[in-house]
UniProtKB/TrEMBL annotation:
InterPro entries: Bact_solute-bd_prot1, Chitin_NgcE, SBP, TAT_signal
Record gene name: ngcE
Main location, first listed in the record: other
Keywords linked to the UniProt accession: Signal, Transport
Origin organism lineage: Bacteria, Bacillati, Actinomycetota, Actinomycetes, Propionibacteriales
Keyword Transmembrane helix: no
Protein name: Carbohydrate ABC transporter, N-acetylglucosamine/diacetylchitobiose-binding protein
Amino acid sequence: MSTDGKVDRRTLLRVALAAPAVAGLASCAKPVADKANPVASGAAKLDGGKPLEFFNFDGGYGKKWTELPLDLYRKAYPQADVKLTSGQQLQQQLQPRFIQGNPPDLIENVGLDGAALAGKKQLLDIGALLEMEAFDQPGVKVKDTLLPGVAEAGRYDGVKYEMPYVFGVGGIWYSQALLTKHGWEYPKTWPEMLALCAEIKKAGIAPWTYQGKFPGYLTNPLLMTAYKAAGPDLKKNLDNLQPNAWRDPALVQAAEGYQELAAKGYLLEGTQALSHTLSQNYWAQGKAVFIPCGGWLENELGDAVPKNFEMTMAPVPGWSASDKAPFETVTGGPGGALIVPAQAKNPQGGLELLRIIVSKQCMKNFAELTNSPVVTKGAVDDVKLTPAAASMQKAIAAAGTNMFSDFQFRIWYKKLLDNSDKATSALMNRELTPEEWSKQMQKYADETAKDPSIKKFSA
């Protein structure tokens, strides 16, 4: 998940144009009516003449992909005034509109606190969407067109409030052409990574860079290295805010390892002050060998990536051969979050546009435009993958069951997420020792656990 509102499309990450016209959700979908909440159940008839607003996060995936679903909606409902708005600062742009009771009808959420909105009943229960007929597959329910895990994702207390749209994976990126040129091999453990960094530095290249202004980009690989050393219980304990979870020796050890990137001069000079765009562009220029990021990186860089670069993503290195989780373990799966605000002026229209977006043709279009895996079955079967996209597919296949969506505390508790960014920044600036970082994170987690105003979830 993003820490700056620009990620997790980051993670991450993210056509046949002939579409059947639809007369309204009541006619094309057959969910069980919920008399108490007809919109949430999908039973309310869509007023095709009502205005519709879709708010797009104009980040790593851009907004070109939105043209097809919006055109299909306009074709189906020609009387509707369909409006696209975009931005990157969702908290500043949309929070006032939630307060005023005038949010957009559908939001591509990167930056809003989804858990808090769900807890305050600000989001529509979109579970009925799963039982509706797929937009371009007559007789097939939406849920049966989705990849495994997608229907279950985006739930809080069992209620589905968010629909993922990308099937992403996160890891460490590098140029395979550059590694081949120097005879370097991607390392599987952190000591091997540090040894390779020493070789890279001797060659006159910076081994690493990261999105310094947004340290959450580095928090995820640090946690992954610790996870591989300690095993799945580490994640469970962190997510459940267990006492002393952040004091696990594997976390302190990983913090020591990552801090060495700074201590030994293995970071591109000035990395800690770089924005996500600058660090990523410097990396694409060959000024650094490794950078952590989600699957949206290639699309976000665009033409900045040189030809024959062989852009490649690999799993985060573990700690040692005695790790409790395999090297192939990655964070991945359904990602992104499309949400329908409960107080939207046209929530049924938002639900209908969401149904169109996850159609096979729209997901194929998204994949072709963004070089990203998507959530709908078969959507990328005949899409020619770039080396970057192919490396992600390879990582997903190799991980198998050793893949999980993310450390859930990063999704459930925004304040804890923000505090973890501050702590990681201090760690990499060598303002905190790894031991102090561990204690500081435990303090933040304990504060979250004891705060009665924060709704708690469990893994």
